[in-house]
Amino acid sequence: MLRRTLRSLITGVTVVTTFDAEGKPRGFTANSFTSVSLEPPLVLVCIAHRAGSFPAFRAARHFAINILSESQAEISQRFASPLPDKFAGIEYRDETDKAPLIAGSLAWLDCHRHDAVEAGDHLILIGEVTRLGHQDARPLGYCGGDYLRFDSLRPASPAGARAPAASSFTPDARHGGRNP
Ligand SMILES: Cc1cc2nc3c(=O)[nH]c(=O)nc-3n(C[C@H](O)[C@H](O)[C@H](O)COP(=O)(O)O)c2cc1C
Question: Which Pfam families does the UniProt record give (predicted)?
Answer without folding.
Answer: Flavin_Reduct
